[in-house]
Design a protein that fits this description.
This protein is an alpha/beta fold and 258 residues long. The protein is 38% helix and 19% strand. The radius of gyration is 19 Å and the shape is globular.
């Protein structure tokens, strides 16, 4: 587990006794939880070390690393975060390792289609849930979608920006916890939710009656996921190579990343 105390930048996490290193640490975007769980299992089966994995909003995790949080590998939903940490010398050379896109998950009675999507989302009665921009790249990408939508329907950005219910993207995900997107529908907090298409699949698996609509390409935002290891972390570099290699990439594709 991660230590409560902050470590000096670039330092290895130490055990509570301070006399031996703890497990290597992976910090990763919440949208990667299922895929990374399988990746880490495959990595360990091939002789790699067991990692202590923590999932949460990439923007928050970046700030934690800048504040001294111990990390061996950081997998972010935005390549900008890994690049920024590399420039500060807190991580080694970053790489883009996969991509995602935006979908809208909605209640079936809305009958969302590409041709009516913007009109329906802009209706005052529709409760539109999103992640939190600034803290979570999924929120940042959603607001980019809002701006593209405004190009089609001037004034729509202001409507969507004002009505969006930021129901995720501020806290780390507890192990085996229910995804906040699922909770939003189970607790009747939203009618539609803009999220990564990979998260949309998981949400529909949990609540089968929901419908998924991929946002049309002209309005969609292709997200670039970045990954980097801490300089000097042999196990971090080894995991990085596995994720970027054929076996790691195949697992990511199986989970809907591309």
């Amino acid at each position: 587990m991660l230590l409560a105390a902050l470590q000096a930048p670039g330092a290895m996490a130490q055990s509570a006794a301070g006399d031996a290193p703890s497990q290597p640490v992976l910090l990763a975007a919440g949208s990667l939880r299922a895929a990374m769980g399988e990746l880490l299992a495959a990595y360990r089966a091939g002789g790699g070390a067991a990692f202590s994995a923590v999932y949460g909003p990439s923007g928050k995790l970046r700030k934690d690393i800048e504040g001294g949080r111990a990390v061996d590998v950081f997998a972010s939903a935005s390549s900008e975060h890994t690049a920024a940490l590399a420039r500060q010398g807190l991580l080694g050379e970053p790489a883009v390792f996969t991509h995602n896109a935006l979908c809208v998950v909605s209640r079936p009675e809305l009958k969302l289609r590409s041709e009516n999507l913007l009109g329906e989302l802009g209706k005052p009665t529709l409760r539109l849930a999103t992640s939190t921009p600034g803290s979570d790249p999924m929120g940042d990408y959603t607001w980019q979608f809002f701006r593209k939508a405004d190009g089609r329907q001037p004034g729509l950005y202001a409507i969507l920006d004002a009505k969006a219910l930021k129901l995720s993207g501020t806290a780390e995900l507890a192990p085996d916890s229910t995804l906040p997107y699922v909770t939003a529908f189970e607790q009747d907090k939203a009618d539609a939710y803009v999220m990564y298409c990979t998260n949309a699949v998981l949400t529909k698996q949990a609540v089968p009656r929901l419908e998924i609509l991929r946002i049309p390409d002209a309005l969609n935002v292709r997200s670039s996921y970045g990954i980097a290891a801490r300089s000097g972390s042999a196990e971090g570099e080894r995991l990085l190579g596995f994720v970027l290699g054929p076996a790691g990439q195949a697992i990511l594709r199986q989970h809907g990343f591309h």
